[in-house]
Amino acid sequence: MNLIAEGIDHGTVLKDFNSISSVIELFPEKYRADIKQGFECTDLDIQSSLLSDADKESVKVQLVDKVDTNSIEALNNKRFLEFQINLQGLLD
Length: 92
Description:
Number of helices: 6
Oligomer: single chain
Shape: elongated
Helix content: 55-70%
Largest sheet: none
Order of helices and strands: HHHHHH
């Protein structure tokens, strides 16, 4: 983290970097492979590219929209006293 922070301070690393190749040179050689692998494991674009269309469809089929009506009503009654949310319109 310190190396990245120093790179940002010196302008060698952009705050919104999106490629590990732009910052990997900051790290000692012996850590680069592990850092690159860790970055790739958390990069959603890379992980998404590893999934087949069948895998993606399998995930989509398993998605279920669940509503916790009691919690929403409790939140509405505690936080939105002056301007209540029309829950009937949202939950129907």
